[in-house]
């Protein structure tokens, strides 16, 4: 069954994309670690982290594509799932600091000492163990998505309303994480990380490994989502997207299909957040900003929703553009981003990949039509020749 | 004839002159006496000083008030060289001398050359009651009122006598009321029969307020058993009334917040509620309205300062026109290509909001700009136990006025009729000869223009910065979704419900947690009623 799942998921473009991502997972760290700093092909460590960050964004966009592109749920809360995964990882990293913090408290993170707390809050227990933190990275966003989705889909909140309440959820979480009493570092968030799994988080090797991990996570998620959307389940998901009522009338429990996709997607977003935090070195409530979630939507839209590799390309392009733009003309970045939103929705509704696919499909059809024409022409011509 | 007139005028002049001299002389003599008496304050022990204070009080001259106040505060000094008494103000190592009667500065002196006139508690009490008596008899009603209030707040047994004399002479009803309370307060601390005390408790209990509460609590501590039930009843009575007023204040704050929400959401109720466009640039329309107010005020400040009180009235139509025009441009340029694709309009309008924000940031800078309150909008007044600020009151009135105007426009004008027709059945409306594209454009412009008007009002209570709109966008959507899409009444009820709910949760949960709770409640509410409080019914809903 697994082989058939894998076989089905390996369409040619997906195979190529997975190969490229896995190739990057090998090549970029190798170029960083094995070449001398003055070598023309050397990739500086800061770039490794920057590209690693893009890959986590790509994973986030891929997660959104699963629900938006294939199920029609425009979630404006994916940055929240991303941030929750990030916080779970950040809590592990905080506990790893141990007594090396500025207050030297072996148990409590610095901000708790600063707030004069005496005991570790209960929800910080267990985060000194990596496996527990890793579990929470997927469980917390997954559980939130499950509960939220269970309520929302069951009462048939959909379309715009769903977008708005996911945004409300994100906003509520933003406000909550800003509070010092919540025990997540308030405004400043979690930062000053020292090491991860015993390796120094600033070290070149760790950075390269984190990059590779992000790439592998992205490749695995791509295989997973591709398998999902190509299975029978995926077909029904598309049915839900295009004609929800009809699918329901055909006897499918629409809300279960939606809920499954939503939860898986939130878990993927959580993993993306968890890989993002050690590469960036900080997680704060700003990640919950409703604007961030909307930005994820534009990455997906630029690349092409419903294409799986589109969102990956979109996330990397838009964020690469952002890095270049904000360095060169910082004032104009928002103009560019805003313009991108408008232009893509107006002129490129299928996104880059979607447009290319449509164009190729059209050409194929055209060529086929031409071949048919030629064949028919031949068929007509042949008898003449026979005579 | 002429000589007679000259003689007469000379005569009268002489008489006036003589009179003036007499008056002046008596005044001077009186002042000399007072000065001597004040100088005498520096002599002798506490009881002698107390006698002097009483003697001073008997003169009934308000001029001695500063000296007595300084004595009680320990700021009265005697110059060792000539035994003159001065008020002082310390400045570094030296003391600035102030004449006790005229209040003018009279040089400086090293602190070693002066001796402080010592006071103890009993002397202080004497001074205070003397002062109370003096100011209680002041010809100015305001001063009397203030004195009576001071005595009410710090009751003492000595105050009873002056209060009773003042009460007998008082004519002003307001002062009389406070004096009666002050008398009751004094009775409470005195050793009087229970009946008198009970009456006093009742008077103070009726007065209400925090001061009465602390008076009664102090009395409760020392009261005997016969009085205790009365005091306790009076205290709980006051507390009940205070709780009621506090609830009233919360309702007021809630109404105020609700009016802000209503203003922010009402434009969205048109663009989102009526047209179904997820207008994420709505907040930026509010922001543009606020910046229009800023520009108008800048021009007025620089060129026509006397118009300042009219600045908002001038800004209102301008803001409507500016944001309406921007809205029209957005609809014609972007949104009309996206009808039927609501999620895409969300993205496009979000992009527009980013562009508008950055444009304003580039033109006006990223910092807050100052928008002033016209005089009729600043200040506050008391209504019973409520403090009501004028700007909040005006904003409530204004939001309701905008609501009413919009309702009138939609229900009673041909334009409103066409708008509703297009929303309900576009193709039918089109067949009837309505130019639906124009109606769309005008409706969107109307919604945007109303957002701009809201911006004028919100500039009075919020920081005018490029981020102004972002703070309102989520709340606005919550209000519209909560109230029910496509229903203006729903928006009204939704705004005020959320406002009041928020303010009632705040005291228990804190401002941030209260807001989170409201958001969670809305999310849960939408599960129960996905179409809001006042849902549209019928086939059009599913389309």
Q: Can you offer a commentary on this structure?
A:
Chain B: The chain crosses the membrane at residues 251-278, 310-330, 342-360, 393-410, 437-457, 477-501, 508-526. The complex is a heterodimer of chains A (387) and B (543). Chain A contains 15 helices and four strands. Chain A has 387 residues and is mainly α. In chain A, helix 3 packs antiparallel against helix 11, helix 4 packs across helix 11 and helix 8 (204-230) runs antiparallel to helix 11. Chain A is globular and about 90 Å long. The termini of chain A are far apart. Chain B has 543 residues and is an alpha+beta fold. Chain B has three domains: 24-122, no CATH class; 137-226; 245-541, ABC transporter involved in vitamin B12 uptake, BtuC, CATH 1.10.3470. In chain B, the strands form two sheets. A five-stranded antiparallel β-sheet of chain B has the order 4-3-2-1-5. In chain B, helix 4 packs antiparallel against helix 5 and helix 11 (282-303) runs parallel beside helix 13 (342-364). The longest helix of chain B is centred in the middle third of the chain and has 47 residues, at 228-274. Chain B is elongated, with a radius of gyration of 35 Å. The N and C termini of chain B lie far apart (107 Å). Classes of the chains: A mainly alpha (387), B alpha+beta (543). At the A-B interface, helix 6, helix 7, helix 12 and helix 14 of A face helix 13, helix 18 and helix 20 of B.
Q: What is the β-strand count of chain B?
A: 7
| Percentage beta strand of chain A | under 5%
With strands numbered from the N-terminus, the spatial order across the biggest sheet of chain A is: 1-4
| End-to-end separation of chain B | 107 Å
What's the count of strands of chain A? 4
Q: Which quaternary structure do these chains form?
A: heterodimer
Shape of chain B: elongated
């Amino acid at each position: 069954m697994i082989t058939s799942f894998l076989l089905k998921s390996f369409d040619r473009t997906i195979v190529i994309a997975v190969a490229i991502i896995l190739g990057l997972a090998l090549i970029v760290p190798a170029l960083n670690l094995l070449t001398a700093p003055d070598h023309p092909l050397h990739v500086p460590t800061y770039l490794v982290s920057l590209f690693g960050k893009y890959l986590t964004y790509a994973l986030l966009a891929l997660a959104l594509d699963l629900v938006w592109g294939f199920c029609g749920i425009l979630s404006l809360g994916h940055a929240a799932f991303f941030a929750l995964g990030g916080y779970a990882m950040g809590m592990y990293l905080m506990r790893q600091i141990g007594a090396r913090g500025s207050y030297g408290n072996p148990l409590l993170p610095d901000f708790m000492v600063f707030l004069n707390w005496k005991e570790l809050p209960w929800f910080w227990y267990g985060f000194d163990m990596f496996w527990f933190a890793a579990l929470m990275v997927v469980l917390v966003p997954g559980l939130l998505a499950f509960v939220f989705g269970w309520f929302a889909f069951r009462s048939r909140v959909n379309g715009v309303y769903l977008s708005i309440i996911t945004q409300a959820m994100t906003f509520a979480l933003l406000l909550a994480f800003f509070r010092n009493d919540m025990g997540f570092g308030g405004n400043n968030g979690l930062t000053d990380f020292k090491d991860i799994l015993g390796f120094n988080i600033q070290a070149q090797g760790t950075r390269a490994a984190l990059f590779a991990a992000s790439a592998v996570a992205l490749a695995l998620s791509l295989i997973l989502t591709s398998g999902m959307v190509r299975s029978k389940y995926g077909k029904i998901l598309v049915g839900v997207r295009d004609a929800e009522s009809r699918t329901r009338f055909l006897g499918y429990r629409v809300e279960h299909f939606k809920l499954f996709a939503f939860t898986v997607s939130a878990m993927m977003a959580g993993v993306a957040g968890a890989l993002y935090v050690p590469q960036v070195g900080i997680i704060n409530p700003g990640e919950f900003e409703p604007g961030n979630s909307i930005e994820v939507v534009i990455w997906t839209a630029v690349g092409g929703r419903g294409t799986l590799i589109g969102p990956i390309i979109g996330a990397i392009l838009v964020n690469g553009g952002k890095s270049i733009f904000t360095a060169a003309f910082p004032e104009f970045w928002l103009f560019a981003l805003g313009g991108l939103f408008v232009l893509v929705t107006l002129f490129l509704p299928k996104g880059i990949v979607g447009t290319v696919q449509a164009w190729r499909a059209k050409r194929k059809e055209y060529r086929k039509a031409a071949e048919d024409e030629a064949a028919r022409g031949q068929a007509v011509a042949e008898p003449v020749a026979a005579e | 004839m002429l000589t007679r007139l000259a003689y007469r005028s000379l005569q009268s002049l002489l008489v006036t002159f003589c009179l003036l001299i007499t008056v002046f002389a008596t005044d001077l003599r009186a002042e000399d006496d007072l000065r001597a008496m004040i100088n005498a304050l520096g002599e002798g022990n506490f009881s002698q000083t107390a006698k002097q204070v009483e003697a001073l009080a008997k003169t009934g001259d308000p001029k001695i008030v500063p000296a007595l106040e300084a004595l009680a505060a320990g700021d009265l000094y005697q110059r060792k060289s000539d035994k003159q008494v001065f008020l002082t103000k310390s400045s570094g190592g030296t003391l600035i001398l102030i004449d006790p009667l005229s209040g003018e500065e009279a040089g400086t002196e090293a602190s070693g050359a002066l001796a402080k006139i010592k006071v103890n508690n009993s002397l202080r009490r004497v001074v205070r009651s003397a002062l109370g008596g003096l100011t209680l008899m002041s010809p100015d009603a305001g001063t009397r009122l203030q004195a009576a209030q001071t005595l009410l707040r710090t009751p003492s047994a000595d105050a009873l006598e002056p209060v009773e004399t003042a009460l007998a002479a008082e004519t002003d009803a307001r002062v009389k009321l406070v004096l009666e309370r002050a008398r009751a307060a004094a009775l409470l601390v005195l050793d009087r029969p229970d009946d008198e005390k009970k009456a006093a408790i009742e008077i103070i209990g009726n007065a209400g307020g925090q001061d009465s509460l602390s008076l009664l609590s102090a009395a409760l501590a020392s009261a005997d058993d016969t009085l205790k039930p009365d005091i306790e009843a009076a205290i709980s009575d006051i507390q009940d009334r205070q709780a009621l007023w506090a609830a009233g204040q919360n309702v007021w704050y809630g109404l105020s917040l609700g009016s802000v929400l209503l203003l922010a959401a009402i434009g969205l109720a048109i663009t989102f509620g009526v047209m179904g466009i997820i207008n994420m640039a709505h907040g930026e329309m509010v922001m543009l309205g606020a910046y229009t107010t800023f520009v108008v005020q800048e021009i007025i400040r620089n060129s026509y300062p006397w118009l300042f009180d009219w600045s908002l009235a001038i800004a209102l139509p301008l803001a409507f026109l500016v944001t309406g025009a921007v809205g029209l441009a957005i609809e014609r340029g972007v949104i009309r290509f996206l009808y039927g694709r609501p999620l895409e309009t969300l993205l496009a309008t979000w992009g527009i909001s980013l562009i508008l924000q950055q444009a304003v940031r580039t033109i006006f800078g990223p910092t807050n700009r100052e928008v002033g309150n016209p005089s009729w909008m600043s200040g506050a007044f008391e209504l019973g136990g409520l403090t009501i600020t004028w700007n909040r009151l005006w904003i409530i009135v204004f939001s309701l006025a905008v609501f009413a105007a919009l309702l009138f426009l939609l229900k009673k004008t041909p334009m409103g009729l066409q708008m509703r027709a297009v929303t309900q059945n576009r193709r039918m409306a089109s067949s009837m000869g309505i130019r639906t594209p124009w109606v769309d454009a005008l409706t969107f412009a109307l919604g945007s223009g109303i957002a701009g008007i809201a911006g004028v009002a919100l500039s009075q209570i919020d920081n005018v910065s490029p981020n102004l709109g972002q703070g309102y966008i989520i709340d606005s959507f919550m209000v519209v979704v909560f109230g029910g899409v496509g229903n203006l009444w729903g928006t009204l009820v939704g705004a005020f419900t959320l406002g009041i709910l928020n303010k009632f949760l705040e005291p228990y949960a804190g401002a941030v947690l209260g807001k989170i709770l409201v958001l969670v409640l809305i999310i849960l509410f939408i599960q129960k009623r996905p179409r809001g409080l006042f849902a549209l019914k019928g086939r059009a809903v599913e389309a």
